[in-house]
Predict the structure.
Amino acid sequence: MLLRWLNTQAVEPAAGERMLAAVPAHCLRAVADVASHCAREWERLAGALQQGDGRLEAQ
């Protein structure tokens, strides 16, 4: 189930470029902040999976 969901979240490079190009200049900082937050959360998920316990540590 998780792998199927992750697969739906994957972005093809060309699609990512199109999304990036569509962000208005005045929103770039906000979108970058949200993207950074998401990246940190994905890193936490990956770390929990690599540890093998599947539990996320509270931050």
